[in-house]
Amino acid sequence: MTETxxxxxxxxxxDNADALLEIVRRCxxxxxxxxxxRTFIKHSDxxxxxxxxxxxARIIFDMSRALETRRSDPASYxxxxxxxxxxxxxxxLEFEKDAPIASTHTNFQQAVxxxxxxxxxxxxYLDEGTQLLN
Length: 134
Prior knowledge:
Blueprint: H1 3-11, H2 16-42, H3 45-49, H4 54-68, H5 74-102, H6 106-133
């Protein structure tokens, strides 16, 4: 089942308000994955020797804090997500470039994959939520 089919199945028969709350819930799940990438980076020995890795960690922190206060207001949440997602995407691209220089360990490869997937899916839900708001 595709992500679109899954969202459509989950939101079938409910109004836009409930569908928007479901989108916020899913975005929060994705942000929890991003938070784990942040935690991994912060606690890696490589971050001490390669401070460039902390860029994505700082953006994830900033974005998480900005979004958490808007969970109960989907329109506001999506507005803030729209404001912050470009910075996360940019930081993720930098992390994708810097991580293999810092370490070729599988943990870093998976962290890159994870944060890229978060960005992709957050953009998807932002687009879906924006359509529901219009």
